[in-house]
């Protein structure tokens, strides 16, 4: 039942219309200092970004943003700061992914095919490294053992690099939300039930200025103001 719900959530995210302000390939160039910070202090950055994604209101915090079975059952309401600290250190990958899903569901953001390929490559490399490690333990071959160590090292480097880029992508998206790239749009903190909107077919445009309907002409004057005075009808 839970796996079916997660599959439905993933399929719903494919219908989202907005894109990340910066894709994973461009995050290093977009904010190099923060990307370095996310690489060397990943859990601390994950804590900071989750709290910011919740508009600094920790009463909204749920373990892994409500996307795993134990969410809401870990005493988050009594000590949310401690629970979030535990999450980012013990379940770092889940904490990064949960913040990503939270932003996607809130702002109707889809992940590009290039980003999906990067994330998929990271997971595949980890699986291959794990398989080589198991084979090396069973066979006892020195060559396979050395190859498994090289693959494990490569998978760790790719994992931490991709996570750093993802966290930088999240930070830039929240900079956009908070108006750091231009005038702050008229917005309000969404109510608690809208922080995760995976059950709605088209989430409300919280945090972004309303977008014109597809096909609507831009720059046209309102009805009744055209043609101007003196212009023959």
Throw out a few tags for this protein.
single chain; mainly alpha; two-stranded parallel sheet; 8 helices
What does this structure look like?
This is PLAC8 family protein. The chain crosses the membrane at residues 118-139. Keywords: Membrane, Transmembrane, Transmembrane helix. The structure is a single chain. The chain is 55% helix and 2% strand. It has 233 residues and is mainly α. The chain has one domain (1-13, 21-178). A two-stranded parallel ribbon has the order 1-2. Helix 4 (42-53) runs parallel beside helix 8. The protein is globular, with a radius of gyration of 22 Å. The chain starts with a helix and ends in a 56-residue tail after the last helix.
Layout of helices and strands:
Layout: H1 2-13, E1 18-19, H2 27-30, H3 32-40, H4 42-53, H5 80-90, H6 92-107, E2 109-110, H7 113-139, H8 142-177
Helix pairs in contact: 3-4, 3-8, 4-5, 4-6, 4-8, 5-6, 6-8, 7-8
- Contiguous low-pLDDT stretches (5 residues minimum) are 193-208, 210-221
What is the distance, rounded to the nearest whole angstrom, between the alpha carbons of the first and last residues?
64 Å
| Overall pLDDT score | 80
E-strand count: 2
Sheet with most strands: strand arrangement: 1-2
For the record, the count of structural domains works out to: 1
The radius of gyration computed from the alpha-carbon positions, rounded to a whole number of angstroms, is 22 Å
Oligomer: single chain
By secondary-structure content and strand pairing, the structural class works out as: mainly alpha
Shape descriptor reads globular
- Specify the helix fraction band: 40-55%
Q: Describe the sheet with the most strands.
A: 2 strands, parallel
Strand content: under 5%
Order of helices and strands: HEHHHHHEHH
Protein name: PLAC8 family protein
Keywords: Membrane, Transmembrane, Transmembrane helix
Organism: Musa balbisiana (Banana)
